[in-house]
Recover the amino acids of this structure.
């Protein structure tokens, strides 16, 4: 039976997706009545890093296809090496622009409302259609014209989590009869987890717009634009890239609850190293308004996550080798890295000063500005995750999904001056309330004033 013509559906390649998303973004969100505005500039510069990804794809294609010793193959290999260097330079230059933009955002207080050119139901329909299209991209096995190859090394906890999920699916499948091969099961589990994380990010952006921006249209625009941008399509199957972004997005949504946001960031930091760098900034954000509660919940979640990882590694019999491989030179700025990046083979003496500047930047934003509001938290969190790109030696510059949700929040946010951490009232902690209630049950004859004094 011959396949139907209606099922002969071909996905666009990376360049076509770039042009398609750029045209559609301008049509949906560009403010044609105020051409020279920061919002319009931000929308256009969201695509600033895309040429770097296209150059990376072409460079990898040239390097993989030319293994012979012919003069033409040698010339194409040299061209691939040049394009590789130029691509990472482009990506770091674009990252530098967004780092400056994030710092400048601290001074942008007045943010006029800019509604999309499509109403909320239309944006919802487009977002759902994009999600199903990206799902089709994610499940392609071979000849994928959009999705790039594996990006960087996977953190050990994420690898263990994926292996555990794969084992559960494999055992469930074996219990009902013969099924797919272990390689197929691993592929489907990885793509399912990645797609679920992308959906979690889009829903988190929508909820932030709905609750904190008080604008459901802005929330729908945030989620739709996240699914529309080419970076999401390029890395739709990269589970380890979007995993920390999902936790950070929902931590921003729960910023009014220091314990919940601490648990979310702690779990993310225990499974992926990058969110750990946000801890000083977020502790400074809460300061005397729940800083200790945030720090304790963060430390608890981090300990739980690391403990589960240690148990998984110990049960697998490779605890020592796993911990050794975790401390690779790509995260140690004084080592000479060997992974692909602009720093490949460069002595650590050239990368160490950038790391020192990054640490100084972390120390500065922990105490300044004070007090911080939600707009400061979003912009500085994005700046921290962007700053990692400059000294991380394993494809530094390509980890756009780490900070893309934060950049979108920075672009679409209204005036958030009044959005600060909640004030901590005496006796307002959960544990203190529980202790006070228990004491009143044990000593019912005590007066209300005495109970309040004990709670304080």
């Amino acid at each position: 039976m011959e396949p139907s013509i209606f099922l002969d559906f071909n996905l666009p390649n990376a360049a076509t997706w770039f042009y398609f998303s750029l045209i559609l973004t301008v049509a949906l969100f560009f403010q044609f009545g105020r051409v020279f505005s920061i919002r319009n500039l931000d929308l256009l510069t969201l695509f600033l890093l895309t040429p770097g990804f296209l150059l990376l794809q072409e460079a990898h294609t040239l390097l993989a296809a030319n293994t012979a010793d012919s003069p033409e193959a040698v010339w194409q290999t040299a061209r691939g090496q040049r394009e590789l260097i130029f691509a990472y330079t482009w990506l770091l230059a674009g990252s530098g622009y967004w780092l400056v933009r994030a710092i400048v955002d601290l001074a942008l207080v007045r943010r006029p409302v800019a509604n999309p050119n499509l109403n909320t139901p239309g944006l919802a329909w487009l977002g759902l259609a994009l999600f199903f299209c990206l799902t089709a991209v994610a499940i392609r096995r071979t000849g994928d014209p959009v999705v790039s190859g594996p990006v960087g090394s996977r953190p050990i906890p994420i690898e263990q989590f994926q292996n555990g999920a794969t084992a559960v699916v494999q055992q469930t499948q074996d219990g009902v009869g013969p099924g797919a091969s272990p390689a197929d099961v691993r592929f489907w589990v990885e793509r399912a987890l990645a797609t679920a994380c992308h959906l979690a990010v889009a829903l988190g952006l929508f909820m932030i717009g709905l609750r904190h921006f008080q604008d459901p249209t802005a929330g729908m625009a945030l989620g739709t634009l996240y699914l529309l941008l080419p970076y999401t399509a390029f890395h739709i199957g990269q589970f380890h890239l979007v995993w920390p972004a999902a936790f950070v997005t929902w931590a921003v949504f729960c910023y009014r609850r220091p314990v919940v946001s601490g648990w979310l960031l702690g779990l993310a930091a225990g499974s992926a190293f990058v969110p750990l760098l946000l801890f000083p900034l977020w502790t400074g954000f809460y300061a005397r308004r729940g800083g200790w509660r945030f720090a304790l919940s963060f430390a608890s979640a981090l300990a739980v996550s690391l403990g589960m990882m240690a148990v998984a590694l110990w049960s697998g019999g490779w605890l020592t080798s796993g911990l050794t491989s975790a401390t690779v030179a790509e995260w140690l700025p004084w080592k000479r890295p060997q992974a692909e990046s602009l720093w490949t083979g460069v002595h650590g003496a050239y990368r160490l000063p950038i790391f020192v500047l990054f640490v100084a930047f972390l120390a500065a934003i922990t105490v300044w500005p004070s007090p911080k509001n939600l707009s400061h938290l979003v912009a500085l969190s994005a700046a921290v995750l962007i700053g990692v790109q400059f000294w991380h030696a394993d494809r530094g510059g390509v980890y756009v999904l780490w900070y893309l949700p934060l950049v979108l929040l920075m672009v679409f946010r209204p005036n958030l001056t009044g959005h600060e951490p909640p004030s901590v009232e005496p006796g307002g902690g959960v544990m203190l309330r529980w202790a006070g209630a228990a004491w009143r049950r044990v000593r019912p004859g005590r007066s209300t004033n005495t109970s309040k004094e004990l709670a304080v």
